[in-house]
From TrEMBL:
Classification via Pfam families: Darcynin (PF17074)
Protein name: Darcynin 1
Superkingdom of this protein's organism: Bacteria
InterPro entries referenced in this protein's UniProt entry, alphabetically: Darcynin
UniProt record similarity statement: Belongs to the darcynin family.
Length: 111
């Protein structure tokens, strides 16, 4: 049986001054719709990483793992429609993309 590819994206984000000016209670309230959206896509694992102290040009990373790029894309379409990105409180700076063990899948396809 063919194993599906596992994709990984690191979405680099930059918190904006408007976000940093908010108190933590307000930030949590603003993030509630994002948690609801994330729960609609259980096949896309998302971990939020802080990188303020060590990042260059970004403050946060959304580390996403998934097998279905369409679900990943639809997730981000919904996230981008929220106030978090529409205000914007965060800017999408860049996305790094990779495929876990892609060379193994390629080698196995030749057998």
């Amino acid at each position: 049986m063919k194993k599906s590819l596992r994709y990984v994206s690191m979405v680099l984000l930059e918190a904006q001054p408007a976000w940093l000016a908010l108190d933590r209670k307000t930030r949590n309230e603003i993030m509630t719709p994002l948690r609801t959206i994330l729960s609609k896509y259980p096949d896309v694992s998302v971990r939020w990483l802080d990188s303020d102290a060590i990042g260059h040009g970004y403050t946060d990373i959304a580390l996403c793992e998934y097998n279905d790029i369409e679900k990943y894309h639809f997730l981000w379409e919904e996230l981008r429609d929220t106030i978090v990105f529409g205000h914007p409180y965060f800017l999408l700076k860049d996305t790094l993309f990779g495929i876990e063990d892609a060379y193994v899948a390629f080698e196995n396809s030749k057998n």
